Amino acid sequence: MSHNISCFRCGASLAAMSLPLSRQDECPECSVYLHVCRMCKNFDPTVPRQCLEDGAEDVTEKDRVNFCDWFSPDASAFDAVRKSQADSARQSLDALFDSGKGGEGSAASDTSSDSDDAEKLFQ
Q1: pTM (two decimals)
Q2: Within a 13 Å sphere around the CA of 96, how many CA atoms are in the beta-carbon half?
């Protein structure tokens, strides 16, 4: 039986995977576990506990693998806008922490400069 489900994190097609998804199934692209709240039809961030199923146990970490019996994969779990925002934030952090680094060749000089700056703090 064919389905049109994508990974909630990276958007990779999961059409080659058989349903129901097992607790240990991972995305073939990003290796994230798929039996998680964020991948479920009952997940709704706008309601208390973020779950539409009253009988489900409370799961604190919505992107961690769980044992929920109410789990049903949602074809619309992937949010391209959220991924774009996360990618942008990651690039900004990388740029912030990589700024001033001249690449691998200058690592030794950066280290000595950083050490000198640190020493000045304690003088």
Answers
A1: 0.67
A2: 6
Residue 18: which residues within 8 A CB-CB, separation 6 or more?
none
Per the rule left: phi > 0, alpha: psi between -120 and 50, beta: everything else, 63 is alpha
Tell me the CA distances in angstroms from 5 to 90, 92, 108, 117, one per residue in order: 25, 30, 47, 52
Tell me the domain boundaries of the chain.
1-99
Segment 88-122, tens digit of pLDDT: 888 888 888 886 555 454 444 455 666 677 676 67
Residue for token digits 């806008």? 81
DSSP 10-63: T--B-TTSPSSPPTT-B-TTT--BSSSGGGBTTB-TTSGGGBS-TTSPP-S-TT
| pLDDT for residue 59 | 92
Phi, psi at 44, each rounded to 5° = -150, 110
